[in-house]
């Protein structure tokens, strides 16, 4: 899942790379600051990325604009740290001899005013402050000026920026910039182990190959690719998680194999085409977060006949019956039906409250026996589908009902397949499979419909992408041959996380024998078996059957 830079409150700095606008400037930067391994100026349309760091800078404030009088703003020379941000460049200032404490942070944007004053001197206006920067060398001044100019002459918005609200992107990238969130995903044993098995089990697809990891996060998939023998991995990560991924790469001594590139795949440039693209782009209901579009966009870097891991995804949809869930949501909305809440009549908001609760998809897990028909499968082909195909997804539905009951809505889950040269591996979020951090999703109907076994339920699910990196989900259901229908529109961006960790209960009415008698019969059998074992000098240990005890020797010998 793709992520972006944010301000770290503990004064750790993102060493986000920047793009070279030309081979000459890239070479010049590398010579200018070998300590920082600087290899490119910042270019926010994303051409090759590197660390931007300028040392020995004397910063002055303009105290009299008429006389152009300056005064030193800080005691001692400073280091300027420039890093990529969705809005431009984040400029962080620290002292040369103290990189632990942040003095000031500014945002350089397309609206920033700046001008060259001399061969080593540059004036810039930041946050209503007029500053004069005197650089250690002519070359440093030229390179910093290039940083500012590149921001001020940005290309048109990238595909990602066009389809995404700025506030949504900022929140999204901040969320995935936390180590705790990366840990949550990495500790999903099913997810992580399946990816590792899919990659290592198809080592022939990775051996000596060039690999692109889209939305690399911590870089765990990049490490798997190296384990499988990849010659080079480009790990693209748009959040400040990129700096942590770089730390892992260096501490594991694979910097010659893995190149961490901060930025969005829609905005960066790679030096070469790749043989394989790996990513974990799935969200709730497969499509949430719209990361799949980024995954498909990355195909512009894929060689002909290249591989994608995963290769395709199946969204499963089935009608379900769950009176408990429906009543739970309905009763929540009834809070607004009170006419004397602390002396206030709330009933005017009851209708809107009901609408809001039923617009929430429910994220939890369930017993598949609540499903009233076999699921319908909608396929997304990651190798061939286009980004535009995911803007509006219209899925026709037709279910042959297998059990009579009340249909409260539709249940969703997904499977993805890794199609390799050696083997195919599936990752499933089905209610019949081990639970993952994706769980399953259910969308309720405000007006449930009663349907009989043998009837046909038809309709559609319409997913319409929005700029909040999610979808508006419209459900229309109709019982064929009748006038009975029901519909609802839900906001996938605002789900209700209902999962509590409690064991999944069987649906009511599924017991065909007395549960009480079954339990006591089982207990009687166990007691009888244990008694027999004791009489025979044995115990039942951890389900291993009768285990005999040697009682011929005591612990204390009498003399």
From TrEMBL:
Compartmental location: Cytoplasm; Nucleus
An individual GO BP term: regulation of DNA-templated transcription
Domain Protein arginine N-methyltransferase positions: 313-481
Gene3D superfamilies associated with the record: Hnrnp arginine n-methyltransferase1 (2.70.160.11), Pleckstrin-homology domain (PH domain)/Phosphotyrosine-binding domain (PTB) (2.30.29.30), Vaccinia Virus protein VP39 (3.40.50.150)
InterPro entries: Arg_MeTrfase, PH-like_dom_sf, PRMT_dom, SAM-dependent_MTases_sf
Highest taxon, organism lineage: Eukaryota
Entry GO CC: cytoplasm; nucleus
Sorted UniProt keywords: Chromatin regulator, Cytoplasm, Methylation, Methyltransferase, Nucleus, S-adenosyl-L-methionine, Transcription, Transcription regulation, Transferase
Signal sequence extent: none
Molecular function in Gene Ontology: histone H3R2 methyltransferase activity; protein-arginine omega-N asymmetric methyltransferase activity; protein-arginine omega-N monomethyltransferase activity
Keyword Cytoplasm attributed: yes
Keyword Methyltransferase attributed: yes
Enzyme Commission identifier(s): 2.1.1.319
Catalyzed reactions per annotation: L-arginyl-[protein] + 2 S-adenosyl-L-methionine = N(omega),N(omega)-dimethyl-L-arginyl-[protein] + 2 S-adenosyl-L-homocysteine + 2 H(+)
Name this protein carries in UniProt: type I protein arginine methyltransferase
Gene name of the encoded protein: LOC115625564
């Amino acid at each position: 899942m793709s992520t972006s830079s944010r301000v770290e409150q503990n004064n750790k700095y993102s060493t986000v790379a920047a793009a070279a606008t030309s081979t000459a400037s890239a070479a010049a930067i590398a010579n200018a600051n070998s300590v920082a391994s600087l290899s490119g100026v910042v270019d926010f349309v994303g051409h090759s990325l590197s660390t931007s760091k300028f040392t020995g800078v004397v910063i002055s404030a303009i105290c009299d604009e008429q006389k152009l009088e300056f005064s030193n703003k800080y005691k001692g020379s400073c280091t300027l740290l420039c890093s990529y941000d969705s809005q431009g460049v984040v400029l962080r200032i620290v002292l040369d001899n103290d990189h632990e404490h942040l003095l000031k942070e500014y945002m350089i944007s397309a609206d920033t005013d700046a001008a060259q004053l001399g061969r080593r001197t540059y004036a810039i206006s930041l946050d209503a402050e007029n500053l004069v920067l005197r650089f250690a060398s002519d070359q440093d001044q030229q390179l910093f000026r290039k940083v500012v100019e590149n921001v001020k002459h940005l290309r048109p918005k990238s595909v990602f920026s066009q389809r995404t609200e700025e506030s949504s992107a900022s929140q999204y990238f901040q969320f995935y910039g936390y180590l705790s969130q990366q840990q949550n995903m990495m500790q999903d044993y099913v997810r992580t182990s399946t990816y590792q098995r899919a990659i290592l089990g198809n080592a022939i697809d990775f051996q000596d190959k060039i690999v692109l990891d889209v939305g690399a996060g911590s870089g765990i998939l990049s490490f798997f690719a190296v384990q499988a023998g990849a010659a080079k991995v480009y790990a693209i990560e748009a959040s400040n998680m990129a700096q942590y991924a770089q730390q892992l790469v260096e501490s594991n001594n694979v910097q010659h194999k893995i190149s961490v590139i901060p930025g969005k795949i829609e905005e960066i440039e790679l030096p070469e085409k790749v043989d394989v693209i790996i990513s974990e782009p799935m969200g709730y209901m497969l499509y949430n977060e719209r990361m799949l579009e980024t995954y498909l966009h990355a195909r512009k870097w894929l060689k002909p006949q290249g591989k994608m891991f995963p290769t395709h995804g199946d969204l499963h949809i089935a009608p379900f019956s769950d009176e408990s869930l429906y009543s739970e949501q309905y009763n929540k909305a009834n809070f607004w039906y009170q006419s004397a809440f602390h002396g206030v009549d709330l009933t005017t908001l009851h209708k809107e409250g009901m609408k809001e609760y039923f617009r929430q998809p429910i994220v939890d897990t369930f017993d598949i026996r609540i499903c009233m028909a076999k699921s319908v499968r909608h396929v997304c082909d990651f190798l061939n589908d286009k980004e535009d195909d995911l803007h509006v997804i219209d899925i026709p539905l037709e279910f042959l009902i297998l059990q009579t009951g009340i249909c409260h809505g539709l249940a969703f889950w997904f499977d993805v397949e890794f199609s390799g040269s050696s083997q195919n591996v599936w990752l499933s979020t089905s209610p019949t499979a081990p639970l993952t951090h994706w769980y399953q999703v259910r969308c309720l109907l405000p007006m449930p419909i009663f349907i009989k076994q043998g009837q046909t339920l038809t309709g559609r699910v319409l997913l319409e992408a929005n700029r909040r990196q999610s979808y508006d989900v419209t459900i229309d259901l109709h019982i064929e041959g009748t006038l009975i229908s029901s519909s609802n529109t839900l906001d996938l961006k605002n789900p209700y996380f209902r999962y509590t960790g409690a064991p999944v209960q069987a649906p009511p009415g599924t017991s065909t024998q007395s549960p009480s008698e079954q339990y006591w019969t089982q207990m009687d059998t166990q007691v009888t078996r244990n008694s027999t074992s004791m009489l025979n000098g044995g115990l039942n240990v951890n389900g291993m059957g009768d285990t005999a005890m040697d009682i011929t020797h005591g612990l204390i010998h009498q003399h």
